[in-house]
Amino acid sequence: MKSKKTFPFQKSIVFRLLISVILIFIAMTILSNFAISKRQETLMSEMGEELENVLVDSQENDILLLIVDNAQLKSTTEFQMYSFSIMIATILLGSLAFFLIIMHVIKPLKVLTEKVSLIDIDNVESLRNEIVMSKGGYELEELSKSFDAALNKIYESYEKQKQFSANVAHELRTPLAVLRTKIDVFKKKQGHKDAEIEYFISTMENNVTRLSELVEGILFLSRDAQPQYSQVNVRSLLEEILLDVEDKAKEKEISMTIKGEDVVVLTDDMLLERTLLNLIDNAIKYNVEGGYVEVSLSESESEVVIQVADTGIGISDEKKKHIFDLFYRIEESRSRVTGGYGIGLALVQNIITRLGGSISVSDNIPQGSIFQVVFKK
Ligand SMILES: Nc1ncnc2c1ncn2[C@@H]1O[C@H](COP(=O)(O)OP(=O)(O)O)[C@@H](O)[C@H]1O
Ligand SMILES: [Mg+2]
């Protein structure tokens, strides 16, 4: 059975506020009463002095009748004004004290707001940020605990999904490898060239390649391997990549150039190659016949910039926001026979972030897109 939790009054914000109100109220009442009675005393002593003067002037045998009307004393306009200003001062002072207390009470709320605003759903690790507020009152602590529990649940479910897709991807690896071997063997065995069979085989081959890329991509995203850093000559790396994609570019009569000096970056060569290959592959895939792909390198004191520019179909501003999302493909490219599953750019962003860089996309002029990768030195 769940034990009933006792409400910790002393830690409750409501309780603290209530006590503050009562204390301020008492303090202000005492203060105003004190000020008013002080004034009364002065008035009385002034009257006493006046009386003494009268007594001095009077003859010894005179009978003196003195009637002091307390009500009359209080109701003099001067006294009324005085009490009124004391009342206003008390209200102002009390409000100020209460305002300061409220500001003090909601300060932790601002801290919590800041902590929550630092959580970025695109950066899953930020879900694990510590947001429980142990100071600042019972209610706030409970609220932050509920937030924290909800975020932890989201994180756990993300981890489960990641594990699940990694397992599926892992299981798919073997049958895909078998399929690929069978296709290769069949291709070699085929003596005659039957156009229909050849078409069938190449479709099989293309799709096995797409599936393998997907599987490898998912496996890569599910691993949090640490990058292996070394000094990498980006220009040489790019030259190798361009050789690898040469055939693809020739099919569409796309010319490719590298502009810029030799740039050396401290990075993971395999990971950087993977990113640049993805960007260049897209630049060819989403290009027009006879277009060009230009990769440029530049370096300043503080950063290294790698740009991949194409003359392709371009990306609208609305779509730019989503192209780095996993499995996102722009509708028009979905219908294309060639192309992957929208995993490439998600992978690119994941890698660049792991390597401590950033990636952005802009429009090329007059047409196409420019992908820019920046590494801080
Ligand atoms: N250079 C580019 N020019 C135009 N569109 C692009 C370019 N690169 C990527 N895209 C768009 O972004 C989507 C996501 O790219 P990516 O993650 O590499 O997936 P894939 O290439 O498998 O479709 C692509 O489907 C395509 O619509
Ligand atoms: Mg791609």
UniProtKB/TrEMBL annotation:
GO terms for cellular component: membrane raft; plasma membrane. One of its GO terms (molecular function) is ATP binding. This is histidine kinase. SMART domains: HATPase_c, HisKA. Its EC number is 2.7.13.3. The keyword Transmembrane applies. Pfam families: HATPase_c (PF02518), HisKA (PF00512). Its main location: membrane. It catalyses: ATP + protein L-histidine = ADP + protein N-phospho-L-histidine. It comes from Sporanaerobacter acetigenes DSM 13106. Signal peptide: none annotated. Residues 167-377 form the Histidine kinase domain. The chain crosses the membrane at residues 12-36, 82-106. It is found in: Cell membrane; Membrane raft. Keywords: ATP-binding, Cell membrane, Kinase, Membrane, Nucleotide-binding, Phosphoprotein, Transferase, Transmembrane, Transmembrane helix, Two-component regulatory system. It is a multi-pass membrane protein.
